[in-house]
Amino acid sequence: MRLPRLTFWQGVGWLGFALVFLIAAAVAVWRGDILKAGLDPQVPFQTYEPPPAPDYSQTSAWAMREMRAPTSGPAAIFFLHSTTFDGGKDWNGPIGDPEADAYLERVVIPNYAGPFAKAGAISLPRYRQASLYTRLTLRDDARDARAFAYGDALAAFDTWLQAHPGGPLVLAGVEQGGELIDRLVRERVAGDPALRRRVVAVYLIDVIVAADSLAPAFPACSTATSVGCVVGWSQVGDQNEGAARRRLRRALVWDDAGRLVDLNGRTALCVNPVSGATGDTGVPARLHHGAANATGLEWGVRPAFIDRAVATRCQDGILRHTELTTESFKEVGNWADRRKARQYNLFYADIEADVERRLNVWAASNTP
Prior knowledge:
Blueprint: H1 8-37, E1 62-67, E2 75-80, H2 98-113, E3 120-125, H3 140-162, E4 169-174, H4 176-189, H5 193-198, E5 199-205, E6 229-233, E7 235-237, H6 241-250, E8 252-254, E9 260-262, E10 312-315, E11 318-321, H7 348-365
Parallel strand pairs: 2-3, 2-4, 4-5, 5-6, 7-11
Antiparallel strand pairs: 1-3, 8-9, 10-11
Helix pairs in contact: 3-4
């Protein structure tokens, strides 16, 4: 039996359909690479002209400055936010970028600065942050852009510190902000005994740092009541072995020259935020204080919590945790947003309780 012969236009139609199908398949497979390439500045960092530096004597350089909740405690909190600037023509985000600021105020501040509100006055500087693109590649240009952001972090910290000559201090950062706090503590705080004694605790949230980077001046918090120590972790779902391995393989940490280098087999810091202590013993979900999705909440409004829901354990330097499956704890937003710090905080109430407890211990030991 003879097959019917296609006309010329039928052939063109089938060819066009095949091309559309192939293009759609290629976009589906390589969509991430295509979108990532669109964030590449396409210029060497050495010849790149960064945005103007912020003036930390001006209110406009701060997203929050000495912000207090109605019943806040006596601490002064210096908080560095996570990546909110996607990238494009800039390696480092300009101060006052509207989209980056909107994401900061809507997502990052309520979810990650919120847990520290009860402890005291929070100050959160804007800085020329390295773009999201710099966290998706291991290129030297990206490492240089991330190191560049440290200059702003240091300048903001020194301005903030002048306003706080005494009293308890809490230093905290999430993702890129945690990376910068790690270096700031090591280079600016650890060598100053008087300043070091004022630090209640350092919080490095959802970022990989080397466990030995701040010791012995600021060791990992060994117990829930230790002070002058570091609470830090990088979190991955307990069923996602591939993500845990990738985090460790791609992790960059500071060397003594202020360069970002491969973790290269060093142990990553993991202090369990639920137990507030080191060790690889699993912590059952019944001890979990509470997760929250605070996105969109106004400052001072406490979110609703889901407690006794997340089991945790430190394993190979990564905090492994059970997942929440409710709608509020699913990744949402565009491709770029889903690669930033999570748009909820699994350990909101745990951090809140942790800093309050350590602040009470510090105050008791520093009462005249």
